[in-house]
Amino acid sequence: MADLIVLATAVLSAARAQGLRLGTVESCTGGLIAGALTEIAGSSDVVQGGLVTYSNALKVALAGVPEALLAAHGAVSPQTAEAMVSGLLTRLPTVDLGVAVTGIAGPGGGSLEKPVGLVYLATLKRGQAVTVERQIFPGNRAEIRKATAARALTMLLQTLS
Q1: Are strands 97-103 and 22-26 parallel, antiparallel or unpaired?
Q2: What b/e sequence results for 46-61 when a residue is b if at least 16 CB atoms lie within 10 Å of its CB, and e otherwise?
Q3: How many structural domains compose the chain?
Q4: 123 contacts: CB under 8 Å, gap ≥ 6
Q5: CATH number for the domain including 39?
Q6: Angle value at C-alpha 105, between 151 and 33, nearest 5 degrees
Q7: Which domain holds residue 153?
Q8: With a threshold of 0.85, does the pTM exceed it?
Q9: What SS3 class is residue 96?
Q10: Tens-digit pLDDT profile for residues 10-38
């Protein structure tokens, strides 16, 4: 967790310097990204909050992911990651920069097309284009979740630089 805190501290510092507020939409990480950010005292001036949209129903209801998109591409897809982060910024005008993650942390649930460890991450800074990334992280469930959170924080930092 210490390496996540280092990354989260850098994200908060960069966002604070630009006067930006952050939000998260998480599926496979279950709030780990928001947890790392809010582990740091004083983060409330930057972090607006996070959504854990583990189920498709909550992806639709809270993040505004269209049901037709989920039916066509599935929850673990670049389209869903993009829709999750876009929905966050659309629905929450106080969020300037968001990150979304959706994937298969395992140990079950994988397939040949979508193996365990497959994750899609998306970042969006208001007024810019969405960045979507595909990763396959090795390891067990805990390792995949931690690697996903670290990559999400790194993507936020890259968006802020």
Answers
A1: parallel
A2: bbbbbbbbbebeebbe
A3: 1
A4: 85, 97, 98, 99, 100, 130, 131, 152, 155, 156, 158, 159
A5: 3.90.950.20
A6: 40
A7: 2-160
A8: yes
A9: coil
A10: 999 999 999 999 999 999 999 999 999 99
